């Protein structure tokens, strides 16, 4: 056992550990104080964006060659997890910046990467991802948004729904049908800018949770964009979209981990303070068993998520399975853990004076977006390792 101290399997590197500590300190100092108000007022967490951008943590995944931090997939997970621990809405800033821009990273031309990843890295504009439509959710290949070639331009028409940070983001990766005969192989990807003529936004959705992150429809009314804004070759958009989700589902798992950790931390502190029958309720075995189960589920979810992040970085063959499994398991665990945290706080847990009810509401969306957990199970079944 002489080599035991250097046995780094299943342990974060020193750099990753330091990153977690840095992000946690920043999140607690600059983001946590505004979390309740952001939720209550359903307003964009500008304080979080400012703090994350100032610390270069708003889009850590952007490669160094385009002015980014060049963080690996696990580092990105740690940033999102630690921000989500105090405010799920704010964690959508680094998460959706990755989701929106990853198609450009994976499939974009060198010119496109330079044009859009640089401003993203500098903090000059956020990126959103436009895949879902009113009639094309889980069946994304059934989309109706069209792009028609017109000389050196493409003209886009259609509606995208459930677009996170819509209206705030400067840039949008948009999937549109360029050849209606080919279904998924007739879909192409484009970068659309907020300022392009014909781009407009619906009213913000009134949501159960993540209220600080605006979710709106995006409308494209004869939006003319230069042909060089197509991401990759014509007809490859859907494949790029699915490849993107293999990587970014792991960021949703990270978000779920953070929300669950925040709820567990709060509940753990509460049961030590709250007294009934002359002693802290944390002394009762029934309460101890609940906490033990919460911590166990969270740790299992974390190990699966970090393993998936490592596979994302190495682009291993079983990434599709692991990405879906991490997202599905972590989000189901987060819903159970936050619900139990509310239970442990009793009547107080049900009020907005305590953060766990917000965490419970925020956890729910992690089971739904970037592919419902029912769809994740289909994905897993088709990609069993």
Give a concise summary:
By secondary structure, the protein is an alpha+beta fold. It is 52% helix and 15% strand. Strand 9 and strand 10 form a beta hairpin.
Set down the secondary structure blueprint:
Layout: H1 14-41, H2 46-54, H3 73-86, H4 88-107, H5 110-122, E1 127-130, E2 146-150, E3 153-164, E4 171-177, E5 187-193, E6 199-201, E7 215-226, E8 230-231, H6 237-273, E9 275-276, E10 279-280, H7 285-314, H8 319-345, H9 356-366, H10 373-382
Parallel strand pairs: 1-4
Antiparallel strand pairs: 2-3, 3-7, 4-5, 5-8, 6-7, 9-10
Catalytic activity: a 2,3-saturated acyl-CoA + A = a 2,3-dehydroacyl-CoA + AH2
Cofactor: FAD
Domain Acyl-CoA oxidase/dehydrogenase middle: 129-223
What does this structure look like?
Residues 129-223 form the Acyl-CoA oxidase/dehydrogenase middle domain. InterPro entries: Acyl-CoA_DH_CS, Acyl-CoA_Oxase/DH_mid-dom, Acyl-CoA_Oxase/DH_mid-dom_sf, AcylCo_DH-like_C, AcylCo_DH/oxidase_C, AcylCoA_DH/ox_N, AcylCoA_DH/ox_N_sf, AcylCoA_DH/oxidase_NM_dom_sf. Residues 13-124 form the Acyl-CoA dehydrogenase/oxidase N-terminal domain. Belongs to the acyl-CoA dehydrogenase family. With 385 residues, this protein is of the alpha+beta class. The chain folds into three domains: 12-120, Butyryl-Coa Dehydrogenase, subunit A, domain 1, CATH 1.10.540; 125-234, Butyryl-CoA Dehydrogenase, subunit A, domain 2, CATH 2.40.110; 236-380, Butyryl-CoA Dehydrogenase, subunit A, domain 3 (Up-down Bundle). 52% of the residues lie in helices and 15% in strands. The protein has helices spanning 14-41, 46-54, 73-86, 88-107, 110-122, 237-273, 285-314, 319-345, 356-366, 373-382, and strands at residues 127-130, 146-150, 153-164, 171-177, 187-193, 199-201, 215-226, 230-231, 275-276, 279-280. Strands 1-4-5-8 form a four-stranded mixed β-sheet. The chain has a four-stranded antiparallel β-sheet with strand order 2-3-7-6, with no helix packed on it. The longest helix is centred in the middle third of the chain and has 37 residues, at 237-273. It starts with 13 loop residues before the first helix and ends with a helix.
């Amino acid at each position: 056992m002489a080599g035991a101290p250097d046995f780094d399997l299943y342990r974060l590197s020193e750099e990753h550990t330091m990153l977690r500590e840095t992000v946690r300190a920043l999140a607690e100092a600059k983001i946590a104080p505004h979390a309740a108000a952001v939720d209550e007022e359903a307003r964009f967490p500008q304080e979080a964006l400012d703090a994350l951008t100032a610390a270069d943590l708003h889009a850590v995944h952007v490669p160094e060659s385009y002015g980014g931090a060049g963080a690996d997939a696990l580092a990105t997970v740690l940033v999102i997890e630690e921000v989500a621990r105090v405010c799920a809405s704010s964690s959508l800033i680094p998460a959706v910046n990755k989701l929106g821009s990853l198609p450009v990273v994976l499939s974009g031309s060198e010119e496109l990467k330079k044009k859009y990843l640089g401003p993203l890295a500098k903090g000059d504009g956020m990126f959103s991802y436009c895949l879902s439509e009113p009639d094309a959710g889980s069946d994304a290949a059934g989309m109706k948004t069209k792009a028609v070639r017109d000389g050196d331009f493409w003209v886009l028409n259609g509606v995208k729904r459930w677009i996170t940070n819509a209206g705030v983001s400067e840039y949008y990766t948009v999937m549109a049908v360029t050849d209606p005969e080919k279904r998924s192989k007739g879909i192409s990807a484009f970068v659309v800018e907020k300022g392009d003529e014909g781009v407009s936004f619906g009213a913000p959705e009134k949501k159960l949770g993540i209220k600080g992150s605006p979710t709106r429809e995006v409308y494209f009314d004869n939006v003319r964009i230069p042909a060089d804004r197509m991401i990759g070759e014509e007809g490859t958009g859907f494949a790029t979209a699915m490849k993107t989700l293999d990587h970014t589902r792991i960021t949703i798992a990270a978000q779920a981990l953070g929300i669950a950790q925040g709820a567990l931390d709060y509940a753990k502190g509460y049961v030590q303070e709250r007294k009934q029958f002359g002693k802290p309720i944390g002394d009762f075995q029934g309460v101890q068993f609940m906490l033990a189960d919460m911590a166990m589920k969270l740790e299992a979810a974390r190990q699966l998520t970090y393993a998936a992040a490592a596979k994302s970085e190495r682009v291993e063959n079983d990434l599709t399975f692991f990405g879906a499994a991490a997202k599905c398991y972590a989000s189901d665990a987060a819903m159970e853990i936050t619900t139990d945290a509310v239970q442990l706080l009793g009547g107080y847990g049900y009020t907005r004076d305590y953060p766990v009810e917000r965490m419970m509401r925020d956890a729910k969306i992690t089971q739904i977006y970037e592919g419902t957990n029912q769809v994740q199970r289909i994905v897993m079944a088709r990609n069993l390792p």
